[in-house]
Design goal:
Length: 178
Amino acid sequence: MKKLYFIAIYPPEEIIEKVQVFKRDLAVSYGNSKALKNEAHITLFPPFFREAELESDIFTAFERINTHRCPFEVELNGFGSFPNPKNPVIFVHPEENSDLTDLHRRVKQQFNFKQYSFTPHMTIGYRDLTWENYLKAWEKYRNLKYKTKFIVDKILLLRHDGKWVPIAEKIIEENQKR
């Protein structure tokens, strides 16, 4: 049986709760309820299927990710979007961050079987967001102010068991035991 997995950074609970407010607004005002299903996060490696019996290989690869580095700050600043008429997305926008790019590169060294572009974002609207409602929502969110920051000090491996469940975490710290 195949299971779905992905690797992500989760912000602190108070940011997750604030982002949930934006998601609820999109659900109520713009008919976009699908985004409510997932907590706020930044994807480091997108969802992928693997046979459940190969899960130990996923754990091994996850454990091999080199997180021997200083924790770092991510600044969230305003909103962005992917204006694809077939699948529009609205997100909280992280500032460009070389530490985040470096962490993604380290993940990709262990999980390199899927080609994808890394555009860090924290989704608030997608999937059942129609193009018409995207245009209306984007009018509001394009100029809406939201600014905060958080420290990235761990990454999570998640599995989809009806909902996304963390199954492993890796601490980011400079003085890791080898």
